[in-house]
Amino acid sequence: MPAKLLDYVTRLIKIEPREVPAAAFSFLFVFTLMAAYYVLRPVRDAMASDWSDAELSWLWTLNFFISAAAVLLYGFVVSRVDFRKLVPGIYIFFAASFLLFYLATRWLDDTGFIDKSFYVWVSFFALFHVSVFWSFMADIYTRSQSRRLFGIFGAGASIGAVTGPAIPVFLGGVLGVYNLLLVAALMLLFLIPIIFYLDKTRPGGADAAARGLAQSIGGDFFAGFVDFVSHRFLLGIGLFILLYTMMSTFVYFELKNVMVEYDRAARSQYWGMMDLVVNSLAIFTALFATGRLATRFGLAVTLAVVPVIMVFGWIAAAVAPGLAILVGLQITRRAGNYAITRPAREMLFTGVERETRFKTKPVLDIVVYRGGDVLAGWTYTGLAQGVGLGLGAISIVAALMALIWTLVGIFLGARHDRNNGRVESTGETLMETRYE
Predict the structure, then answer these.
(1) pLDDT (average), residues 50-74
(2) pTM of the full structure
(3) I need a labelling partner for 89 at 20 to 30 A (CA). Which of 227, 256, 309, 321 fits?
(4) DSSP result, 61-117
């Protein structure tokens, strides 16, 4: 890259020249990862309209228990596998799983069971793949770097999420639905050399990285669950995630029901086009606004921005319920999450011990999230089918949840900002101050 162009880019997106190579590969990492997932997502979501609200709620319930068991198994693996092999091994495993799903669709005539199994598995992958990525980033970059760079990686996720659904939208008719699984598997395998390169960019170079990573994290396999329930700050993050999932589920169910009249191919294209719009809008914000927002106003404001918008969005839906408002809520929630909320949430994990990043964080990102899906799915089903509430009344409930979400975000961000200031002024580790 020419020197003048490099200087302009580094000033525009708040990145130092020495950070460019690692940041570029991190950007490529999350871009490819999210593109692979968004090849799979429209295929998964198109299946949902074939099932009732109750069937979908049961699938989400099953997904919660599978996710909890998988996180326990992951804790066992983290405790015993050399850390240098851990992250690449995870993505090789998922690539192999999608290859097996593809082969199953070729071997079995009745794909009903395969479809539901695939829906549950992709729903687990949807959280696990990105949780591991952010844990890896928090392990590589410092707290100060995270405030400047994590927004850029959020933009990489959004660009990947734009590219991914373009494949089923424009090539789904040519490739066929199930052949998309092969495409996603190959993209996951492409990540392996990137991971090995990023390991070598740690402070001290490749030799230091090898010495620090050529061992397992150790500890008990259930330590992540114990850590989560033992600390108020982590419980707060769990509540923040739970409220996010509650509102996203309400929007998802409404959109699913509206699309019931379309066939599966049309649904895949509609969901894919929605993904394109959402992630296209997120790119600019993540590249140019998130880092400035976090460094200038702190995490308290950054974490509260999207929840505040959702409060007013749900109020609008209560006053004038309709498809246009629902689409607007979906775009705001997802674009805001990719560009602002998720990168800010990941900044909370910089400076903590590696065991917390790779054992406790999946409990929050996967078990709590999927538990929120279960709670939200049955809550929506109860409100809509049991109580008989319409969109307007459900929107009032969601607006109250969004208000609580806002307050929780302010609490978490303020606590982190205050503790981070103590770290910088006293030299304590963040773990010594975070959980007071």
Answers:
(1) 77
(2) 0.68
(3) 227
(4) HHHHHHHHHHHHHHHHHHHHS-HHHHHHHHHHHHHHHHHHHHHHHHH-S--HHHHHH
